[in-house]
Amino acid sequence: MAFTAKEKSDYKPIPEGTHRAVSSALVDLGLQDAFGIPKPQLMIRFEFPDLRANRIENGVQIDEPMVKWQFYTNSLNKKANLRRDLDGWRGRGFTKEELEGFDVRNVIGHACQISIIHDNSGDRVKDKINNISKLMGDGAKPLPELEVISYSRDEGEIQQWNLLPEWIQEKINQQLDDDISPPPVQVDDDSFEDDDVPFDQEEA
User: Fold this and answer.
1) pTM over 0.85
2) How many domains is the chain partitioned into structurally?
3) Higher-scoring residue by pLDDT: 156, 116
């Protein structure tokens, strides 16, 4: 099965510590089954320009930044992980007006600082984003090196689809039908609960 192959991935975790990063992909996963509850989900890809990964493609060695895909429930509820990380990334909270219609695609191409910690509890080391904050200092901000991706299931283009890793394509194909969706999560809904990442990052 494909899942067995994924367990053999040679993905190397991002080293612990605080690193410069820049977002270079936003992917709409559609409605996904999150522990029995349908939730709209998305993923953001972060590049780490100071951390390099080398791979061979068609006999040529390619040097590129290490990357991490981060999963989020697509909600700006005050308890949502996306809201927390965007607050830190922007260096300020959302205004009432912004909460009424913030386009998450605005994050593409924007730099930040990301604190990484390692989870050593399983049979392999897992890197986790502990904190995202505004990039400090007056130096040049990193720009995406990889091809930028902005994929929406409603506006899907084959070119953008082909840029996605296979494991993310599979996740999109597992999306639930809209007609079984609960009402959209309200920003001020105190009953909202966000989840940790329900699946591990695979090799990009």
Assistant:
1) no
2) 1
3) 116
